[in-house]
Amino acid sequence: MIKSMDSFKGFFQSLPRVGAWFRQGDVQPEEIQVFWRHMQRCFPTDAVCSHTSPARLFPRAGVAPGHCLHLPFEVGVPRAGWDLWRQVVACTHAVQHVLQFEEDGLEVSLASSAARARSEAEALRCDLELHFWRHGTTPPLWSLAWRLRAQGCHAEDIAGAVHVLALSAASIRQGAVENEASHVALQWLEAHVPHLRWDRAYHSRAR
Fold first, then answer.
1. How buried is 30 (Cβ within 10 angstroms: 0-12 exposed, 13-18 middle, 19+ buried)?
2. Cβ 9 vs Cβ 79: under 8 Å
3. Which residues 6+ apart lie within 8 Å of 47 measured at CB?
4. pLDDT (tens digit, 9 = 90+) per residue, 127-183?
5. Burial track 66-80 (b if 16+ CB lie within 10 A, e otherwise)
6. What confidence score (pLDDT) does residue 15 get?
7. Cα dihedral sign, 43-160-115-49
8. Amino acid 140: pLDDT
9. What pTM was estimated for this model as a whole?
10. Would you list the DSSP string of the chain?
11. Angle, CA of 152, 44 and 109, to the nearest 5°
12. How many CB atoms are closer than 10 A to CB 134?
């Protein structure tokens, strides 16, 4: 069920005549493409548009050993469930999973429920870090962690991921940026689209 107007945003942005109006005040398609190229230079990956379910936000099981990211959208092209800003977040999230793969070399799909939950909680920190940069708030944590159900995580492991995300959210609201993928993404955003930041005095005060 679609619960908010944000869920419609990608669809509205994709409309042929009025889409440009819905893209006002957002990152633009050409900027998305440049951003992805930058991230792929910093973290060598290949992106393949496979149009998988929008509910799957790049679990690390989708990061192949050759660093191939299977995308449910064409980069820079908004579609239902994947507005342009969400494509920025998705890229950063996916890259963090690539870094995890490089560190331990084990597909999370083969790991335990607890390991999958820990991996996703770390990658979801990217979502929190970028959301705070853009909006000055952190999103509802349970709505993020609930995605772990699709990865076969047990309820107790999902609850543990929410606890980890709560700790992350508290530090993020104090100005912390921990994930490497987020550091690189935010540097690019600061340099190229600083007008999208919630507060030009970024990190000068907590909210």
1. exposed
2. no
3. 36, 40, 68, 69, 71, 75
4. 999 999 999 999 999 989 888 988 889 999 999 999 999 999 999 999 999 999 999
5. ebebbbbbebbbbbb
6. 81
7. negative
8. 93
9. 0.84
10. ---STHHHHHHHHH-TTTHHHHTTTS--HHHHHHHHHHHHHHS--EEEE----TT----GGGB-TT-EEEESS-TT--BTTB-HHHHHHHHHHHHHHHHHHHHH---GGGS-HHHHHHHHHHHHHHHHHHHHHHHSS---HHHHHGGGGGGT--HHHHHHHHHHHHHHHHHHTTT----HHHHHHHHHHHHH-GGGSS-SSTTSS--
11. 15
12. 18
pLDDT tens string 10-25? 887 888 776 676 778 7
Q: Are 57 and 123 in contact (CB under 8 A)?
A: no
CB–CB of 126/89 below 8 Å? yes
How many residues in total does the chain contain?
207
Instruction: Count CB-CB contacts under 10 A for residue 110.
Output: 9
